[in-house]
């Protein structure tokens, strides 16, 4: 076998092993980040482009279809506001943005008394608002909580606040897939079924209060759309 053949086998072996690992994650991991799925889809797209087997099938529209096509079909919501992939008759997020509820929030927690509750992000307004807040538990620890009017508050996992040090949190509120979570370095701190119908988000304060709390500093970081634009361009 020549060098070219060995190169093909090597690429295919890497692709197959990565695919098996991702399938395992999809089946057994409770929280798989968009970044993990994006790497898999990017590899699929690159391999198809390299060997000329044709681009991945990509649909485009303002709304994610209720009818899910075959495996590995992609769908772009809006102008790359969200990229989704079909797996086992379900949609999964691949590359989402604030327009579809995906945020990278850089947060710094400051000293506050035990029992203080501060707003982090909310969707909607008034009684319809869904809020993620942070509750100070004392001893340098806190937890994220999720709630809305007429609903018992869901409590997240306590964690060290590391007061004064900034950390980036993966925050998701995607009404299309009814997904909500807050992750820190891939570790879930809270995650429940999300049932908001709003894509209007307020960051760092309560949506019905103009002032911002001083206990937490929140920066909304830019989220990439590069993979979505690549697969859409390759699909023509």
Radius of gyration (Å): 20 Å
Number of domains: 2
Average pLDDT confidence is 87
Helix and strand run: HHEEEEEEEEEEEEEEEH
Return residue spans where pLDDT drops below 50 for at least 5 consecutive residues: 24-29
Total helices: the number is 3
- End-to-end Cα distance: 35 Å
User: Under the CATH scheme, which class of the largest domain?
Assistant: Mainly Beta
Which geometry do the CA atoms define?
Answer: elongated
Give the amount of beta strand, in percent: 35-45%
Major sheet details: 6 strands, antiparallel
Number of strands: 15
| Alpha-beta classification | alpha+beta
Q: Which architecture of the largest domain does the CATH hierarchy give at level 2?
A: Sandwich
Q: Under CATH, the topology of the largest domain is which?
A: Jelly Rolls
Helical proportion?
10-25%
């Amino acid at each position: 076998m020549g060098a070219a053949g060995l190169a093909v086998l090597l690429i295919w072996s890497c692709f197959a092993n990565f695919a098996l690992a991702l399938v395992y994650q999809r089946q057994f991991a409770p929280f798989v980040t968009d970044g993990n799925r994006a790497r898999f889809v990017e590899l699929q797209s690159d391999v198809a482009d390299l060997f000329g087997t044709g681009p991945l099938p990509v649909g485009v529209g303002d709304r994610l279809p209720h009818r899910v096509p075959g495996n590995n079909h992609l769908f772009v919501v809006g102008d790359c506001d969200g990229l989704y992939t079909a797996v086992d008759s379900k949609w999964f997020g691949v590359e989402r943005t604030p327009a579809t509820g995906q945020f990278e929030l850089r947060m710094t927690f400051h000293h506050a008394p035990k029992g203080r509750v501060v707003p982090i992000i909310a969707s909607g307004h008034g009684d319809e608002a869904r809020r993620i807040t942070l509750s100070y538990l004392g001893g340098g620890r806190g937890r994220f909580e999720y709630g809305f009017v007429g609903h018992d508050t869901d409590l997240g996992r306590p964690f060290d606040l590391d007061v004064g040090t900034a950390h980036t949190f993966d925050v998701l509120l995607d009404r299309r897939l009814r997904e909500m979570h807050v992750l820190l370095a891939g570790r879930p701190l809270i995650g429940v079924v999300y049932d908001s119908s709003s894509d209007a988000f307020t960051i760092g304060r309560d949506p019905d209060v103009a002032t911002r709390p001083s206990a937490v500093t929140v920066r909304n970081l830019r989220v990439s759309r590069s993979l979505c634009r690549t697969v859409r361009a390759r699909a023509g």
